[in-house]
Write a structure and sequence with these properties.
Distance between the termini: 51 Å
Catalytic activity: ATP + protein L-histidine = ADP + protein N-phospho-L-histidine
GO molecular function, one term: kinase activity
EC number: 2.7.13.3
Number of helices: 9
Structural class: alpha+beta
Organism: Mesobacillus jeotgali
Largest sheet: 5 strands, antiparallel
InterPro entries: HAMP_dom (IPR003660), HATPase_C_sf (IPR036890), HATPase_dom (IPR003594), His_kinase_dom (IPR005467), HisK_dim/P_dom (IPR003661), HisK_dim/P_sf (IPR036097), HssS/ArlS-like (IPR050398), Sig_transdc_His_kin-like_C (IPR004358)
Length: about 450
């Protein structure tokens, strides 16, 4: 599980190491060059100052004063005459100093000149300041002191580098753990999902991509868990819905075939067999319609339909069955409202919704049908005052074989396919269907085309 944090940490570490290495190298080089330039400028300025004093008062006393002063510092001064001979020196002149003096060019500018700046390989860095008609002032500084200064600077850089690398490693370790912890949890969750265990719970993340991914995995797990339950319920429902009418058909067929059965009883049994066969045929047809919708082989033959007149015809045909249960069926539609729809399929949608309203409403209540146009959309509302749908069931009522009433009461009937077919047909017409319901106060279905 730590492989991803190791990889991320390694990538971060190498990337930052390269960036910091380049920056450190540039900073180190800049500081060293700046420090050497300061040393050379200081040496040249010191020589120019001595030169100015000598030009003001060129005497043995002044020369002695200058050399005596420099003998107590880390720089050395050599004063020469016009012929290049050494007049005075703060230290004994060695071979390296003599080589630098001998190599002095003829035309030295008034501001002075750096004669040697190689602090790495030479014994001295040096500058020269010309004396007007009197020779020159040479300034020297032993490179051991410069190298010691650079060594101290390098030591500080190494210490800073080690501290930076250590702190960077610790920070990257915690950062990579912080970044990869949710990824590891998501990996564990997907492993459980792959093994068929959908009972995963991921902590709510932030609004970034990792948080969105965790939320997507959680939604996927919940959906798969629901689909697993739905599949089991689907198989149980199919088994029940097919077995029940087949049991009736077989049982009553056996009784009707007995020799002692009276014509009246046989006729009654045949009527039951016919009803169960009709119910079984409707169930198979519903399943067949859904299968065709899934395979996109379900055709919708649209034509222009005047919706008020169309719904009025459905109201006339359905009203007697509502009156039979002492339920009022009201219809409201003003003017003319036109849509492009398949009349047969659209009638199936409305009848399914009305059939549900009638089944789950008590006597003395009312069911209403309403059609109106709003902007560029047409709204169709079927509202009842029945049992209502519990909030926890509302998200699933359009699923196949899903029943709010799990008892499969024969009095209510139904196969659990009606609303699934309604949803598919509405979407096939380019619309959507929504519901709002309160337990014990009724349900409202709204179709928007």
């Amino acid at each position: 599980m730590d492989r991803i944090s190791f990889k991320i940490g390694t990538v971060f570490f190498i990337t930052i190491l390269l960036v910091e290495g380049v920056l450190f190298y540039y900073l180190h080089s800049s500081i060293i060059h700046s420090r050497i330039d300061e040393e050379l400028a200081s040496l040249q300025t010191r020589g120019n100052n001595h030169r100015d004093i000598l030009e003001t008062s060129y005497s043995q006393e002044t020369i002695h004063h200058i050399t005596a002063m420099e003998s107590k510092t880390d720089t050395h001064v050599i004063i020469t005459d016009q012929t290049g001979e050494v007049v005075s020196s703060s230290v004994p002149t060695d071979h390296s100093m003599q080589e630098i003096i001998t190599g002095t060019p003829e035309d030295v500018p008034r501001a002075g000149l750096v004669l040697e700046n190689d602090w790495k390989d030479k014994q001295y860095i040096a500058s020269v300041s010309p004396l007007e008609n009197s020779g020159a002032v040479y300034m020297f500084k032993n490179t051991e002191r410069v190298q010691s200064l650079i060594a101290k600077l390098n030591k500080h850089f190494w210490l800073a580098g080690i501290l930076l690398l250590t702190s960077m490693a610790v920070i990257i370790l915690f950062l990579s753990r912080f970044i990869t912890k949710p990824v590891i949890k998501m990996n564990e969750a997907t492993s459980k999902i792959r093994q068929g265990d959908y009972s995963v719970t991921l902590p709510r993340g932030g609004k970034d991509e990792l948080g969105e991914l965790a939320e997507s995995i959680q939604v996927l797990a919940d959906d798969l868990n629901h689909m697993k339950r739905q599949r089991n319920e689907f198989l149980a429902s199919i088994s029940h819905e097919l077995r029940t009418p087949l049991t009736y058909i077989k049982g009553y067929a056996d009784i009707a075939a007995k020799a002692g059965t009276t014509p009246e009883d046989r006729s009654h049994y045949l009527q039951i067999i016919h009803e169960e066969a009709t119910k079984l045929s409707g169930l198979v047809k519903g399943l067949f319609d859904l299968a065709k919708m899934d395979e996109n082989t379900f055709t919708i033959q649209k034509e222009t339909v005047e919706l008020c007149e169309f719904m009025r015809g459905i109201h006339s045909r359905m009203a007697p069955s509502f009156n039979e249960k002492n339920i009022a069926l009201n219809f409201v539609c003003h003017g003319e409202v036109y849509i492009e729809a398949d009349p047969t399929r659209f009638e199936q949608i409305i009848i399914n919704l009305l059939d549900n309203a009638r089944k789950y409403s008590e006597a003395g209540t009312a069911t209403s049908m309403q059609v109106f146009k709003k902007s560029s959309t047409v709204h169709i509302i079927v509202k009842d005052e029945g049992k209502g749908i519990p909030e926890e069931d509302q998200a699933w009522v359009f699923d196949r074989f899903y029943r709010v009433d799990k008892s499969r009461s024969k009095a209510l009937g139904g196969s659990g396919l009606g609303l699934a077919i309604v949803k598919e047909l509405v979407e096939a017409h380019g619309g959507k269907i929504t519901l709002s319901s309160k337990n014990g106060k009724g349900t409202t279905f709204e179709i928007i085309i």
